[in-house]
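Contributing: when you submit paired examples, paste them exactly as shown. First protein:
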Amino acid sequence: MALRRVGAVTLTALAVVLAPTSTVVAAAQDPVPPESAGTQTVDEDPEFLELHIDNVTPSTVTTTSDPFVTVTGSVKNVGDRTVRDVSVRLQRAPAVASSEGLRTSLTLDQSRYDTVGMFDTVAGRLDEGQSKQFTLSLPLRSDTDISLDITEPGVYPLMVNVNGTPEYGGAARLDDARFLLPVFGVPGTPAVPPDISSPVAVTMLWPLADRPRLAAGVPGSVTEPVRLVDDDLATSLADGGRLDELLGAVEFATRESVDRDHTLRDSLCLAVDPDLLITVENMTRGYLVVDDPSDPTGSAHEGTGKDAASAWLDRARSLAASMCTTSVPFAQADLSAITEVANPDLTATAVEAPADIVDNALGVTSLRNFVWSDAGMLDDATAQMLRGDEATTTLVAANSVDTTTPRDSAHVIEATPPPAPVPANGETTPAATETPAATGSVDALLFDPSVGTALAAMGTTPQTPSYTPQRARYDLSDDSQTARLQDALGAVSWSALEPEAARAAGTPRSLMVVPPQLWTAGAEDAKTLLSTVSSLMRSGLATPRPLPAMLGRQPGSPEVATLEYPDQAAEDGVPAHIRDAAGTQTPRIEALNAALVDDPQAPLTPERFTAPLREDLLRSMSLAHRRDDERRSAEEASDVRADEVAETMDDLFGAVTVVSPGGVYTLASEQSPLLLVARNDLPVGITVRLQVDAPSGMTITDIGPTTLPPRGSRTLTVPTEANDSRKLVVQFSLTTADGQQLGEPTSVTVRSNAYGQALAILTACAGALLLFLAGRRLWHRFRGQPDPADEGYERS
């Protein structure tokens, strides 16, 4: 983590005296400056020690807290040599003075952490692979002893610094760990309370989402259980699982005995992925787990999460009924990619259908006309795509909207007047005959990107959102989960604790708490975050601001803001070949769906049969795990899903075909009908058209649309006129109404018993000869002359 370890890889040639005291600290300069004369550089970016923060107590300081900050952790030798005289100390930087500083303060040179203490010896010798625990405890403030010198509420960057002497080198700072400490009030005599004259309005989204789990390329069915690519979701829904803990944290924090005045409940809104609900609902009916995700119809075994899915879904319904609930785009799909595909059905499935799915699954009425993109930002084309006849509200990072003044919301697209009505005289204007354009506005609620970035770093799989500025990006893998939690607590608390700084910067007194949609925060992290937000409201530093009250309201300024979509968002988005696959397969799904027969008596409808395939295309465009360490597996899963949909569509179109009769088909006469068999192996009836490629000498009449029964066949009587007795090869194929090819073309060899033109000539010649001979006889008889043809014939 180069940005976090400035100077941590240099070894000084000068010996440094390390004071082995556990509780005494001194405000002194670092014995090993980051860059000084007499330093020697060893192997490029060497690693000797690894520092890990395990616990910070208290995680949030209040006026009733103990007046000490205690940090526990461990130091491990990860190098190739022994390190001696290993010691640690705690250092503090000035309080964070700007929102951007919530991230950039964690990348400052260690010399900026200028309130320091003396070192506490961890181990005299630490061999390769060895690890040692440590505990540091310092007073927040003191008039007589050395302390952290925290005298006012605020958010303070802290650093634990570890020094040691590797073999063949001198003493050096070998690692550090940094985190934020929110101080709501300073304990002691007298205590220093926070300024509560200007509380911040808090709105918090609580995401419940998962990566796509359903096996790809499997059409809908009413008898077959669904198939999952793995059984990890069962673990996540069960006791101690990620989704169980995210749900449980809200259940605990909003129950009557904890949230008596419902302030936390009012500030919260569940944000649920409809794809997760579809998967969980299907799990409650029993399901299979495929042995090979790339072979979704292959061998599979029974899943283990049926009971856990039922219990979790019941709890989700109960919780959703008591608080605000909204949906996120289906499968956390990339809205920019969907906009590029530009298919109305795909767009509706991604953006419009989720609210209905959430309502049906949870038994609630979720928010409408609210869109939260997983990317946390929109481009201009996507904003136009989201525009409807009513006002639409989106949620984006504040740095993705270019406004002249800081604000908490902005106009993105202004509403336009509806088209003029048709004149009363019945005359139509060109505009009246066109498809009416959407006229509603698109507005954006804005959240602080520094807060969103800190929340995204929480949990077991930290991620860096696309909207995070380059100067605030660094490798998260070197930070412990505890340190990342502290950073999130500090980020959430900062605007409430720094009203003067916020006012000076023109920042609105509001806070949108927006974690990533796929959030890996565990139980303790989630509970601690909710407890911190609740504490802000109980202490008077914050007030709840319900999300429904913010929808449809006019932003504070009539200015229309400009959207910014950085290159990082495109890099983190869905690649071109996945977009192309969706653009290719979506029209095929639509054509098949239109051709299938909607039988009111049949439980399996065309839409139910094809919907999973359209949803699979959205799952292939999911942004889940595309911004964390699991990106490679997410990309591979996306490729497999797109390939499986294409293969399934080929199979479905190939399941409807004309059966080859084999051999030579003989017509009894030149106008005898041709009898063919069309077969449908799909579980839903389908309407087809017979396409014919006949040679000259044969005319075949179009028989029009024909309906084939589910998993059955039908004989097609094809009117045929053959004017040639030769063997003729005719090509037959089936298509949908819009011309999509079904199955493979079939060649039929036809022979007719008609003699055609030769027979007509012979008949004409014979008729002419007959007339000539009859006329000749009559001529001779009229003249009384014997006919030469009668010579030798004697009359009796």
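Second protein:
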Amino acid sequence: MSDQPAIPRLDPDEFPTGAGLLHLRSDLPEALDGTFSPWCDRHHDDLLRVSGFRRARRFVLCGAFGNGEAEAGPPAARYLTVYDLKHVGVLAAGGGDLHDSAGTPLPPELIGAVTSSRLDCREIRRWPNVSASRLFPAGDKLLHLTAHGSGAAMGRWLHEEAVAELLRSPGAVGLRWFDAGEGLHVVLCEVSGPMWPLPPHVPQDLGPAVWSGYRQVYVAGG
């Protein structure tokens, strides 16, 4: 009997789950971490008071490598923040600058020192296939992929190779696939414990691709 987990049949033409994700990556000099982290904690709390924001998580980079000659989408940054949203319309309902305008202003010493990039993502699939009305199970680390290509090609690779390979790895909790727009895909593999899964090779038609490992330093909500 095979020890691979059962993988639901995936039809790339099916509708996405409807869950949303606000995906933010930030860089700043390490000397300012002591100012940045407390401000982030307050900012996360402010956003979780906004209708439709369900959970806030912040991560620090452990390492990254490319599957091609160039990085796909925004480069790997020292900090990653993800907000789980009830649905993809939460950000539009609150205005395009909701994240920037909500809550505590940026401290003066951080103005001009923090560079950031933002992706507004909609969830396409999740493994295990828990209801989108429930928050996805979280680990204490995150294996993060950005890749370019068609939705059909990404679906085939996940269904035929990547999901089974990742979920049979020690510590792997679950996997989510997001559409970030303009052909960019984000895959988040939740990991718990001391071991990191070995990232599967991404085919050339989904490259260039970048795998990053992040360690969770903050979580609230849910």
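If you have annotations for the second protein, write them as plain sentences, like these:
The mean pLDDT is 85.
Residues 10 and 189 are 18 Å apart (CA to CA).
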